Amino acid sequence: MTTTTDEREAPPRSSGIDRFFKITERGSTIGAEIRGGLVTFFAMSYIIILNPIILSGADGTGRFLGGGTDGPNMAMIAATTALVAGIMTIAMGVFANYPMALAAGLGLNAVVAFTIATIPDVTWADAMGIVVIEGLIILVLVLTGFREAVFRAVPVELKTAISVGIGLFIALVGLVNAGFVASGGGTPLQLGATGSLAGWPILVFVVGLVLMIVLWVRKVRGAILISILAATVLAVVIQAIAGVGTKGAGAANGWSLNAPALDGSPVSVPDFGLLGQFSLLGSIEKVGVVTVVLLVFSLLLADFFDTMGTMVAVGSEGKLLDETGNPPRSRAILVVDSIAAAAGGAASVSSNTSYVESTTGVGEGARTGLSAVVTGIAFLLATFLSPLVALVPSEAAAPALVLVGFLMMTQITGIKWNNVEVAIPAFLTIALMPFTYSITAGIGAGFLAFVVIKLALGKVKAIHPLMWVAAAAFVIYFTLDPISDALGV
Fold this sequence. Notes:
This protein is mainly α. The chain contains 22 helices and 4 strands.
């Protein structure tokens, strides 16, 4: 049997999945996408545990932080948190083909819990109605092209600085989540809870981090996922033998969030009774239009620029950005993210937003939306398998954040440090993200510094009109409390 020249030179046929997600085109494989999706899930699965704690009260009784009792219990919030995260992350993968996952936003949920929810007469449904309003407004900004236009107006050096700053930020988040660094001892941060390392959970983190570094430098495929699973197994064994408690229960050297022990069945039936529990205009009737506008603005600005920073960080890590620092299909990415904000409020679990922990999956090799689909499916399964998800303590997942922080830090060479016009704004962006524990604060400082320096040098024409708009918005954002006081709201 002979083979023609055309048959010998014909390229191998790709699968439908490969063509749809452009896996080969982006230099990835289905295996890498699956591993990356799972790594991202494990790196951010803590939100299933943490979001209920923030929204329903640390005692887990379901008592509403505003003083009422109309808030849902922790199990309902956990199930619905995972449900919305799963659906919106799959949407990101399918419609935007981007390796980025979404879930209830940390910081945003704190604003809901400790600011909006504590306003007298505001109910749980009213608070979530404000979140829905914010999501709808930000969706309009995307559909009109405004949000994307602002993103494209940002100088490429500042985009690089945003990515580097997020790298330091998530590394710090990982170290804090693991208890490797903590506040106390007369300094803002110190080594461990007492100035030294102690406790079994710290050992799990250190072993996981060392193993991850060793596997990574030896170029072992699946290094991050292997390390997370190995650290989890070690944590389960330690918990079974030593019976370590959690810090929330008074154990100074205990687990940060959840003890890695399986109590009862690994399967539980989820309660999605929170879906649709929001009042779109109830807050306006209770506290007035001015107060609602300020609350919506604070949520909107944080969501607006956090997502911008995250999509740049994910794209930078995966080498998916074009020459101007923009990711592919940025409009679709922003549309899904905006819908997620409103969906989180409509489901009564706070605004959903893109997660910077997605960079851990990209670090594992993910380059397409298939990894996001895998992460989303894992979240949907977590609605039934929450006991198994709780087996992974933050100490086992935190090493991934530290390693990815290093990987993102390597992009710092893309900043022209001998050009102070971009170097100073870049420095402030990078420094203030971890120092203020806020991506938005870092971006705002960089934007304002950029505008001020250009003005000082008489280079007004070098400032894009939308940078003026963004800078003005950040001035309001940074002075929101004095403005609220002046208006008596």
